[in-house]
Amino acid sequence: MKKLLFPVLLFGTLMATAQSPKWHVAATYPVKGDGKWDYIAINPVTQQLYVAHGTEVNIIDKTTGTEAGTIPHTEGVHGIAFAPRFGKGFTSNGKANTVTVFDINTHQVQAEIATGGNPDAILFEPFSDKVITCDGAGKDLTIINPGTNKVVATVPLKARPETAVSDGAGHLYVNLEDKSSIAVISMSTFKVEKEWPLGKGEAPTGLAIDTVTHRLFAGCDNKLLVVMNAVNGQVVTTLPIGDGCDGVAFDAAGKIIFASNGEGTLSVFREDSADKYTSLGTVPTAKGARTLVYDPLTQNVFLPAADRHSGPDGKPVIAPGTFRVLAVRK
């Protein structure tokens, strides 16, 4: 963990920080199991939370935290995506190099699809009606037809794709972690059209988009959130965030940007306009709470986390019985 340096410098067009954050951890939901975790998602049909957790996906009620089921045998699972029109959900299984297909209502497993090496982030892309995995070890994208459960294309990137977002109009934007850049993919041809450097941002992880102002928000390993013009790739500004960011979310209605930081904080900004941003403060969460999902229905931010302690060899291990999901709200 890197030490924080104070005072924090404000970059670009960042405005004065609000006196105190309005968001806080309002609820904590214990989750069974002690394995490693990664992304968290919301099923748009059942409105349940899905948490990638070791070798399974935990499904919980987002209001009460009650366990609602699991999707088993997803070795090294990273993420979950949903294709409501096809009645299916998908998990990216990093250690198995596969995607598991399940029924979006019953969670019943239907199929398993081979992907590139170590599929990490996964999403359903609405323009092409395809499911896409970001294959970290393969340094490519796997494009899946959710109707047939078949791979229809592979997009070589020559870099590690961390996560991706769609503008819904034919373009996919992909964080390239080891090149500190964003690749632009045509969802008509499944080919790389452009690659844009992130300026001062290094090793991007989380990524979100405002499709109205055409702005990308890339959380970077050097404690910066880079705001980029999604039309021409110009860096608009950089905003200071916490250490260990692995997730960025955008509230389209409230124009709020959230960056989840593994150090145990949530950085919150308001998009005043396409080129003007105000810090709304830093919310204490929990160490390890590095990924997130924003729920527009409840206006909650959900973050998985667990405590760690030193193992027999001195290396940090997950403390049994501490895995949980935090609900942050106003």
Automatic annotation (TrEMBL):
Residues 1-18 form the signal peptide. Keywords: Signal. InterPro entries: Haem_d1_sf (IPR011048), Host-pathogen_enzymatic-act (IPR051200), WD40/YVTN_repeat-like_dom_sf (IPR015943). Gene3D superfamilies: YVTN repeat-like/Quinoprotein amine dehydrogenase. This is YVTN family beta-propeller domain-containing protein. It comes from Chitinophaga flava.
